[in-house]
Amino acid sequence: MNFKKTGLPGVFIVETPSFEDHRGFFMEVYQKHKFHNAGLSANFIQDNHSFSKDAGVIRGLHYQLNPKAQTKLVRAATGVIIDIAVDIRKGSPTFSKWISVILSEYNKRQLYIPKGFAHGFCTLTTNTNVIYKVDEQYSPELDRGIAWDDPDIGIEWPITHPILSSKDKKHPLLKEVENDFS
């Protein structure tokens, strides 16, 4: 496994080798000791699976407040997404900055997103399956979100009229959200 730093401290692109032959491929998507050796010590306890039938679906920007904040390890099992991490740690030199990474069934990359970052993605293909590990259970009372099109963040999404859930249509701007990260 190869752990590549990004422009946001603590956020890593994880490249996993794939062993291919005439039948298909095999890859190890997570090995606890390799992540720990790279300084990534999340104790993942749950796997989540998101399916989007259409291209142009945006999910996010999501996060959970402490003490149930989540570290995530995200990958696209089928299809292609642009995955986004936004630093929401108050006082951080990269507060409100974001990175984007293409994750796909073809490049087999993953994105490691620690606590203190909002997360979202946009599907670029139909029938996209996104699978991600988290180190805390979902907590509805601590679930929060930020508007996908917050002009103060300025994410360069590949679309202007996304398909959104009713929940994601109502998220406030970063300057208005409840945020206990510093």
From TrEMBL:
- UniProt keyword Isomerase, yes or no: yes
Q: Which reaction does it catalyse?
A: dTDP-4-dehydro-6-deoxy-alpha-D-glucose = dTDP-4-dehydro-beta-L-rhamnose
- Transmembrane stretches in the record are none
Q: Pfam families given for it? A: dTDP_sugar_isom
- What CDD domains does UniProt report for this protein, alphabetically? cupin_RmlC
What EC class is this? isomerase
Keyword terms: Isomerase
- Report what the protein is called: dTDP-4-dehydrorhamnose 3,5-epimerase
Which species is listed as the source?
Chengkuizengella axinellae
Species lineage, top-down?
Answer: Bacteria, Bacillati, Bacillota, Bacilli, Bacillales
Q: Which gene encodes it?
A: rfbC
